[in-house]
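Hi team, as promised in this morning's meeting, here are the two structures we talked about. I've kept the exact order from the run log so nobody has to guess. The first one is mostly here for context; it's the second one we should focus on when we meet again. Sequence first, then the predicted structure tokens.
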Amino acid sequence: MPRWIATLAIATAAGAVLVQCGSTPTRVESPPPATSPPFVARATPPTTRTSPPPATVRPVSVAELGPSWRPDCPVAPEQLRRIDVNYFGFDAKIHRGSVIVHEELAAEVVAIFEQLLRLRYPIEKMRTVDNYPGAEDELSMQDNNTSAFNCRGIPGASRWSEHAFGRAIDLNPLLNPAIHQSGLLEPKTAAPYLDRSRIVPGLLHAGDPAVRVFTDRGWQWGGEWQDPVDYQHFER
């Protein structure tokens, strides 16, 4: 064999070895498996709970009192205060109502109605009696309206009612009537509520928490009187 052919064969073999040794096979990496983005819990925005406005106390004018006051009343308008306060309704919602009382009792009356609200004692409605024609108490009672000041006398008597001084409150008067031994019933439409053994929301019984809200503060409750037995009436 010619020498140059042998040399070429050796060189070719060596090159093949070099190529074989120097070439590294390319490794194809598989793509990583798809993954979902990490779950990030979103903070729930706080629920905004609107608190009912606080009670307010302010003077009243002759015009505001309307037919519930007249010049011969035993108190002047300057001695009275209008209270706007929250109460728990028979619909289980909070409502805003108003009563007018003597200025000396204003702070205490605010505390009383705030405690009744905490007790969830239900009140049908609470507005001043001048909202009724002639400030007629019978109309207010038949409407089960909780009220306070009204310049009027005691039925069948010749003296002023404590309402005329702004020192009495009638609470749910249709449910809690005044019962006279003479047979007089106030309001006249309250016959369905003469049975006081019933446990009905709004009815007042001796020892009830709603009654004690008043009596623990020194108020008298008409439900303990003999004639009339005045379940709606509290006075101080």
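And here is the second protein, the one for discussion:
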Amino acid sequence: MTGIVVIPALGLGLLLAGCSDPTIDASSEEAFYQSSGKILESLDYDQREDFTDALIFVTTSSDDWQTFLSGYGRQGDCIDGMLRGLDGLTAAEVIAKSEELRRLSEQRERQREQRAHDRLKEQLRDKVENLEKRKAATESAKRHLEKFAILEASLIPADPGEVMSTVKINVENATPHPVSRAFFHGKLLSPGRSVPWGEGEFHSSIPGGIEPGEKMDIEALVVDREFLGDAEPPDDAFLEIEVVQLDGADGEPLWASWNFDDRDQECLDRLRKEYDSL
């Protein structure tokens, strides 16, 4: 009875072995090409194209292929490494492996894109935060600088042959600190005109300083060519002055308002839009 069972089973095994799909033999480069050729012969036209594409993708996705391209590895060792992962695979298994490798490749690409996106967003956030801090510090400085009040100001033209005009300023120090030097931005305006005749920066070093609560007349010099250019302002022109920096008794800045200007605001607005769009 046993023999009756064994003989049919052996015959079935031989039948299945004879009808099984051909596989890749990667024992050598020659064996690989021969076995791949046999697989191609067993496939129809569409299957051949899918198998060929899959075979190329699997081999060129391997680390050994990248090493071969870089020129650091021995050609023979690289080829053996590329083929080793295909040994014993059928056409269907090669195609399935290529699909899995493509899926992993696409996943890694999405992860790389996400990391790049996150880095860009982090960089934009840092730039926005830096500009916002500078803006807040400048706005705070302006509130302090306003306490160094300009009570009166006038421009005394240079004498003939001289190149420096004098700005006379009556100030009151309502800040809690003594001031040793004051920096100003001035505009020479006239009624009915929105464009200044002259504009520029100048400063005044104050001998002995000006103490909190003290009023004082101070002077600053401006270069006519830099401040007025070739303009000839009318007699009713007047000076409008903004305090942009004050230095303390130690000569170090107490507050400064020129660390954030209109260009910085434009940059901040643009970066905020870029950040919100991500």
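Starting points for discussion:
Residues 146-247 form a domain with the Immunoglobulin-like fold (CATH 2.60.40).
Helices lie at 2-19, 29-41, 45-60, 63-70, 75-84, 91-145, 224-227, 262-277.
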